């Protein structure tokens, strides 16, 4: 006899250049089962897609086909949502301009939703994370690059082809560092884990230091500690300028930050908040109702959001 | 005997620091009657509100109470929509933090909607202007200041208290000219009719020249003409940087420009479009579907949009 009731669940996939993860998550936000592995970058497109399909099939086999609401895949890059491919994928170049969504759907024999990873993370934070209490928020993922996800009225703001939310490529320094996107002075060139590492190198603090290491260094009562604190202050100013623009444009109640720079929150937040307050009348006029806060789901946000996509589309 | 049918109409008001206008407009976008006058700035709050109430009552008296869908008022400033007052009104300081909406509603004995003038103009362009064919657009009004209005999914993006869309106060030059909003390098300090006039003064072209005069000068085959063309090129670069940020954030299909700088379109558009293309991957990836174009309703846009507010709220 078949079970008369099984919880409705969805499968979310977070595909990064280094790792991929997949999880079966129920409608209440409970992770039923998770799978993770290294992205087989060297194996190329076929290997990467094969590993994803295998992970999804394993989850689907164990948790049931009938009660599966859908499959969502979050991946870095400029995504053309409506067409289902990645127009610009620095981390996974061999997926660029390939019909990723339709190929996964074909192999799995069911519909798949493809979404930008930061959009998925923003949705995840809205569903079960720091954004639960609001319908409108912006999430910035401050890691190797800077991703952005915008939730407006409870839904992902996607724009005409699904490329909305590329906040990491908004200009904060008009004549600043050149970016792979063709622009100069992009936010991700001036306020990412990568930019912190680059500044640490320029200040002779070390080669290839992680943002976490620069955060640890900022705790030291030494000349190095002072340099590290200056780096985080500059980081906070750049981030604050971008946030002021976002507050002026959206007047949303919540702006969440996540990624590898969060351990340095105490070192960059004062300069960031001072800059936002100085540069945004709206921010000052809406205190304390406009909040800038750390996201709470960490690396899991994208996985939750990818799973939730199936319900959002209903 | 009463007429058995009268067209449903709405009253829109556009209240500026210099002039105010009111119009009865029917559901099809036809102006049934318009009234305009000088804003009695010297007379203060009582005189200004009295003139508006009188104009609305005149229109309502002639076009009927029963078929009036509603009354919308567009005014410059940071508007707290939900509370119905202007938090920051440079042009009409005595209306600042005064319950404008509720006071008008009380005197007229009916509901009134208060809206930012650029938001209203964006809605007007979407209704009967250059944005008719899309559901998502951004309008920039490039006049004395720079206003912004964002239409997302056919509705005004308002944000938490109604201050969304203040694009004129986004930063284009981080260490640039100080602005009344507290920021430095605001778009409206670097790409407005006022900034063009200021540059013309600095370049010894004339004192208090209008943007239109600087546009005329740009046509001259002389040293002055060359200076004027450089001013418009710089203007185009600043505007292009702001538009690139908007395209990256929204990925909307349409960005409209209006205001006193439009006569110089041919002089600033090339630098503007070149800058957007260079600074926005999304713009390049979505050509020719992402368009930057002149708005078509001119000063009438806000009046149409203010009238349409009543139907939008339904």
Give the low-confidence spans of chain A.
none
Largest interface: which pair? A-B, 50 and 50 residues
Average pLDDT figure of chain A: 94
Structural category of chain A: alpha/beta
Q: Give the SSE order of chain A as H and E letters.
A: EEEHEEEHEHEEEHHHHEHHEH
Radius of gyration of chain A: 20 Å
Can you walk me through this structure?
Two copies of one chain form a homodimer. Chain A is α/β, with parallel strands linked by helices. In chain A, 39% of the residues lie in helices and 21% in strands. Chain A has helices at 44-63, 100-108, 117-128, 187-190, 193-202, 211-217, 223-250, 265-279, 281-285, 301-312, and strands at residues 9-15, 19-26, 31-38, 68-75, 78-80, 85-88, 112-116, 137-142, 146-152, 155-156, 254-258, 291-294. The mean pLDDT of chain A is 94.
Summarize the structure.
Two copies of one chain form a homodimer. The first copy, chain A, is an alpha/beta fold.
């Amino acid at each position: 006899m078949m079970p008369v009731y099984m919880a409705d669940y969805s499968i979310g996939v977070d595909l990064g250049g280094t790792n991929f993860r997949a999880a079966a998550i129920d409608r209440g936000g409970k992770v039923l089962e998770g799978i993770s592995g290294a992205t087989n970058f060297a194996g190329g497109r076929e290997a990467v897609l094969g590993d994803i399909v295998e992970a999804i099939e394993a989850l689907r086999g164990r948790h049931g086909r009938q009660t599966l609401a859908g499959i969502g895949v979050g991946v870095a890059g400029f995504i053309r949502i409506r067409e289902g491919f990645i127009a610009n994928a620095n981390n996974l170049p061999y997926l660029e301009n390939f019909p990723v969504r339709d190929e996964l759907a074909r192999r799995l024999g069911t519909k798949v939703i493809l979404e930008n990873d930061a959009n998925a993370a923003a949705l995840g934070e809205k569903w079960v994370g720091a954004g639960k209490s609001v319908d409108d928020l912006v999430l910035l993922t401050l890691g190797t690059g800077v991703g952005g996800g915008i939730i407006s009225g409870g839904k992902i703001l996607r724009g005409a082809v699904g490329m909305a939310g590329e906040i990491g490529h908004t200009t904060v320094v008009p004549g600043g560092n050149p970016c792979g996107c063709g622009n100069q002075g992009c936010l991700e060139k001036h306020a990412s884990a990568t930019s912190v590492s680059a500044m640490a190198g320029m200040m002779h603090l070390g080669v290839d230091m992680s943002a976490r290491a620069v955060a640890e260094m900022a705790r030291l009562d030494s000349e190095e500690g002072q340099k590290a604190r200056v780096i985080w202050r500059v980081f906070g100013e750049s981030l604050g300028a971008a946030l002021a623009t976002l507050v002026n444009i959206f007047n949303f109640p919540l702006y969440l930050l996540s990624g590898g720079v969060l351990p340095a929150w105490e070192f960059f937040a004062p300069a960031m908040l001072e800059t936002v307050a100085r540069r945004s009348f709206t921010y000052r006029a809406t205190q304390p109702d406009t909040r800038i806060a750390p996201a709470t789901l960490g690396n899991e946000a994208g996985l939750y959001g990818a799973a939730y996509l199936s319900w959002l589309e209903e």
